[in-house]
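Database export, one record per block. Field names are fixed; values are copied verbatim from the stored entry.
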Amino acid sequence: MLKNAILLLLFLTALAGCAAVPVQQKNVQMFAIETLQGPVNVSLSSVAGQISGNGYLFFKSPDSFRLSILAPFGQIVFDIIVAGEKVLCLQENRKAAWQGSVGDLPPALGTKVWPLMKWIVESPQPAGPSLERVFTRADGTIEIVYYDTGGFVQRKVNGVGDEVFYSDYRITDGRAIANRIELVASEGSRLVLTFDDPEVNLPIENSVLNQSLAGYDIRPLGELKEFSSWK
């Protein structure tokens, strides 16, 4: 899903290169993710099976992202672009595009996980004094947040049972970022994102999340029924 890099999915990241070190201090800040972009390993499990691969992710708050899945030699083999409820899937080598809503995605592409991406990267609630805190969200639902002794979020659970786990925190410019994010939707779908030197809160060009479809054969997303791999 993108010629300059890649998409799909949600979310919090590892730090840059050699400067990235495991978190070892308490007085660092957690912060809101406005944009996120960089290499990522994606693993997605659902009732339809499991697919995984390496790619490139672009995320822009509040709910737009693009995941480009790469072949071993770096070519983009599949793209998913999500903006709110709208979804666009692309296969560049076939010049094929599928448009629709999140609910039209085949189960193998994570119908339930992508709407949770915004929740994954929300600004964290403050830690302490307890390592487990219960919050009432703006929509009236309950969220439970679990912290480690350093004040970093380890896990969040929402009112319907969706869970997200954060691990392998790294520090950059005094701010903590989780390098690994695991989302488990209440119906059983599971998404794992493992980042590699992502860039946080830097500008993302509009063309990345607004793909031109000139020259593409455009079809309804519902026709992507038999999807079982990225290729």
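Remark 1: The helical segments are 117-120, 206-209.
Remark 2: The first strand starts at residue 21 and ends at 22.
End of record.
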